[in-house]
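Problem: given the chain below (110 residues), write out its structure.
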Amino acid sequence: MGFEQTPTKRLYKFNGVLAKGTPEHFIVSVDLGLFVRNRVNIQEGPSLCAQKLKADLDAQQAGEHELTNADLAAYVAGLAAAAARKAENRKPGLRRRKPEPGQPVSPWWR
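Solution.
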């Protein structure tokens, strides 16, 4: 639904329908300094807040919803772990060695 900006926080607005079938309005707040501190792009805010709201609703947490430093730190750690797994799964490419002196050299070798 968008967001509202205060000098230090951004309030993301969400609409949803609970199990009862009644529409609800939710707000997830986040301190803007947390994005800078954790080096997370502010464009990630809506999806991170949506994930936080879903987790809160799954845990049946009522009241205010806030994206915390721990939430952003966990997100950054997950990104780092995924990058490490991806790097680990890469296969090293074939490397050509220069021929030893005195070895026959193919005309195709460059």
